[in-house]
Amino acid sequence: MVVGYAAGAWDLFHVGHLNVLRHARAHCDYLVAGVVDDDTLEVTKGRRPVVPVTERAEIVRHIAFVDEVFVETQPDKLATWRERPFDVFFKGDDWKGTARGSELERRFAAVGVEVVYFPYTVHTSSTALRRALALLEGEHDGESLTGRR
C-alpha cells in the first residue's frame, strides 16, 4: 500500500486545495493530509491563519479524498515523516526546479520517499482571497464585514 502525504495550511479552503487533494489521492492508496498548525504558519509565512488549526483539520478530515489528518507542529518535513511515515510527498510545482525543491527531493530520497509535484490552480489562492476580503472590508467605511472596527 502506497501512503501519500499532502501538507498545507488549507486556510480559507478553496477549489485549488481540493484539486491538490484530488490529484494526490489519485497517486496513492492512502492519503494523509498534513495540516500545519497556527504557530508554525506564523513562523514560516509571517502571519497566523484566518481559520484556526482545529477547524482547518476538521474541514480537511471531511474531504472524501483524505484518509487521515496529521497536524504538523514544526516546519521540517523530514521530521514530520519520522513522526508519520509516508511513501510519497506531494508538493506544488512552484517548488520544482528550485533550490528548496532540490533539497527537499535530496533529503526525502535518502529515506526512500518520492516527491511528486502538482500544478497549482492559478486563478485561486488563499492569498488572493485574503486580499479580496481586505479590499471588501476597506469599502465598508472602516467597518469590517463582521461589524467590528
Please provide a written account of the structure.
The structure is a single chain. The protein has 149 residues and is an alpha/beta fold. The chain has one domain (3-138): HUPs (Rossmann fold), CATH 3.40.50.620. It is built from six helices and five strands. The chain has helices spanning 15-26, 38-45, 53-61, 77-83, 99-109, 126-138, and strands at 3-8, 30-36, 68-72, 88-92, 114-118. A five-stranded parallel beta sheet has the order 3-2-1-4-5. Strand 4, helix 5 and strand 5 (114-118) form a beta-alpha-beta unit. The longest helix is centred in the C-terminal third of the chain and has 13 residues, at 126-138. The radius of gyration is 16 Å and the shape is globular. The model is unreliable at 143-149 (pLDDT under 50).
Summarize the structure.
By secondary structure, the chain is α/β, with parallel strands linked by helices. 40% of the residues lie in helices and 19% in strands. β1, α1 (15-26) and β2 (30-36) form a beta-alpha-beta unit.
